[in-house]
Amino acid sequence: MKSTLLAGALLAFATATSVHAQAIKLADVAELSGGGATVGTNWKNGIDLAIEEINAKGGVLGRKLEVTHADSQSNPGVARAQVQKALDAEPYVLLGPGYSGSVKVTAPLAAEAGIAQIMGGEAAELTQAGNKFLFRTSFGQQSSMPKVAKYIHDEMKAKTVAVVWVNNDFGRGGRDVVVKELDRLGSKVVADLSTEAGQADFAADVGKIKAANPDAVFVYLNEEESARILKELKRQGVTAPLMGETTLIGQKVIELAGDAANGARGHVGLTTDAPVDLIKAFREKFSKKYNYVPDHNGLKGYLAVYMVKATTEKMGKVDPKKFADTLHGLTIKAADEPGILMDVTFSDTGDIDRQSFLVEVVEGKQVVKQVLPKVK
Amino acid sequence: MSNLFDLLVAGLATGAIYALVAVGFTLLWQTSQTINFAQGEFVMLPAFLMLAAMHAGAPFWLAIILGILLSMILLGLAFKMLLVDPMMRHGVLPLAIATMALAIGIKEAVKQFFSAEASPFPSIVPTGDISILGHAVSLQSIGVLVVAILAVLGLTTLLNRTSLGHQMQAAAQNPTVARIIGVPVERMILLTFLINAFLVALASLLITPIYLAKFSSGEVLGQAAFIAAIVGGFNQVRGAIAGGLLIGVLDNLAAAYVSTQYRAAVPMIFLIAVILFRPQGLLGRAEERTV
User: pTM to 2 decimals?
Assistant: First the structure.
């Protein structure tokens, strides 16, 4: 009897070990606490949803996906340590972080290990340093900011603009590109204000904007700070139209800012309000599972995993060393891989090309005003 | 300089919150030689208690009452009995370290049980502006300022004009003599803790609609209030009030007229200058020490 039990236990152990060995291991390092908690939580939930779906349908090439989540605490130093720890476990692909500053300090580690890193950072410089292992899930600022500047100049007819940005890699990168583009188009920057990540009081900054009396205000801060400055802009009665990027008109910002978000406009690479059937379906699944409407970071986390699936199936094998080579120049069509949500092409630098949207917040909801086509 | 008035009002409103929190530092220091490094988290927690009550179905006004009462029990009574009293026997330093641990514990607990993400919080003051001297001033700033001033006036009246206040001051200044003349010192110290808990709950109610409810929001607030208390004078309530208002205004003026990029550095530089030239704080009392 004892020997039968022992044999059974050994068999169960062997089976479990075998299944475990067959799983494809992904490592995620994200902003699960700190200033970027909204970013990281949405990103993580998007990843978990995609993995659950893929595994329910048999996995990738017959193998299940497994992910470990680590918290960067929205701190580049912690992110670097967490990525190093994650890479020591030899994952197939590294997912995250979402903050550009954290991506900047972790990208060399992943590149050194020869592991592809699919991340959420948007700073222009990230993919311009020649790193062949770094891939975006969203537009880089070099793609999005020219569209933003053009909209401010052509559609808002703004001759003078106030630019408010968060003083980190993300904010500086966006500010540099948008200021250059506005200058090229002939719109004058009359106030150029840097703010701090985690800043609570924007009274002085908004006071400066009021004093500059611009035709439009470009706001480029993280989500929570975006909500705070929207409230302060409303409080101080700034009536100039507000333009931003995804972080100004995200779902969480609308929830936090309330009425103050109404009228804000922004260019978004991804939004759950996009008039795209697959995105609508994603929104429904996500909301059902997590009981809230995700922001663009939920979409980014979700399609990051489907990037892994589509690329691996294209290769026909699980090969971490060849993953990056395969993803460069790859076009993934939503008709072939619905999880990718929209047709997408990855450049040789790891940048992304796909449709994008111009959004306005109307009565507490994102309303897509224009759909912008793929660049190429 | 056209927006100087707006900056002053906004700075005073923020400074009034710092003052409320800073007063707590001085009260606890005077009565029990306690430096509470969890004071910022004490301001963060009541907002979440109120949110929890609202999520459970309580209307806002009831949530406020429940939040304040729970704060007084948890952050006043329980804090004194479960942490300060047992740790005090081991000296001020272990107690200060224990309050640092408490700050981490409160933050992590809120993150775990509520969310790591920020949540909106309703305001007791309606939105909108009123015109003062030709300037549109937000009702929220005025409301915050007025409530904070009333709270501080109430506290100073209690301390200086009532028998209870005199007993509290006696207990703070010389507990041994106070006991001899019949002052219930322990009860007075407990009352101080309860008052501190009430003030932080009030600060939480006023500041959270602006700062948003977030587990980490106490960090900035605690630091600013601590600086305010030192700048004003750690052993004087009036010093804490002046320090709070000064730091609030200084922060806004520095951001507007010096540099938004280095605004966080300005209060620190001011703090260093005060410590160098007037270590007891601007309105503080120099204390002699027997060696």
Answer: 0.75
